[in-house]
# Entry
Amino acid sequence: QCLKYGLTDSLQQGALDVSVRGGGTCNSEFEFLTGISMGFVPANVFPYQTYSLGRVDNLARQFKALGYKTTALHPNLGTNWNRNMAYREMGFDRFLDIDSFPKDAPTLHAGVRDSVTYDKVIDLVEKGDGPQFILDITMQNHTGYDKNNIPADRLTNYQLKNVSAYENAEFNEYVSCIKASDEDLNTFIQELRQLNKPVVLVFYGDHQPNISSNYLNDSVYPNEDKSSLSHQLRAFKTQYFIWANYDVAGTPAKSTNKEMSIGYLSSYMMELIGAPLSNHQKANLQTMLKMPFLTLMGYSDTNGTWRESSTELTDPSVSGDSPAAKAYRNLDMVQYLEFGSKVKH
# Structure
């Protein structure tokens, strides 16, 4: 999501390369929380549902070891994507699902308003008696976008070229949800500015909707080969920012832009705010220097050239001994140590 209001004092922001589109929120969560790239997990696998994660390091367990209370909240059924089981295995102290929200909580489109979850976060922070790590997975923008349930005074009226009336309506329903989220997020940040406790906010988009590929990629670039990796990658980018309500030592809040992959995001955030780094996070940060982007779709070198990773490990000659290829193979071994050797099916 791109903030309409803009952030001029974030610690870092930019495009975020993710491994899913149109669904699979849990895999973006998994990559952010663990620092494990889906590039090293079999395709069409959802770790929350497939593996026992009790021995896999992640942010919840890391912050808990530092004395933080850890909470996950999501205004949907706890069984959605097996979160009730996965969060417990990952070490969260508590999970606030839909039953923790008022029955008459304001809704928009697909569920409870983003603003309601932000109010819950503010309440947790204000009433907490110590440091906290809080994961908030919002719900209102969930697919699909042909529900015709956006109030008339909130519905945008953009007119796309070369699409049907149905497709144009879908697009406007989606954009209306994004607009509402921008407004809620802006209010949330203004409230965080007023808190008398130091807060770091990491905000990221989990994935683009399915409609983005048809309406915003294929339509805008009709002469490109739709099967090419460079064309497909546009539909696997979202936005992120890292922001704090206090002056972080050594990190001026200048809202500089830096594109990265979601599997690197938590490692980068920990370094940015001066938090203790695990060996895995240190490996991720070193790998970024030679292989800046890594997702299920592939990996890139420092020149921005992407390669598909499907044959990389079985046929290293595909990309030879380039720094990025070596970094890919080295990180594969690290992530097997941190993930593959620790999970149970």
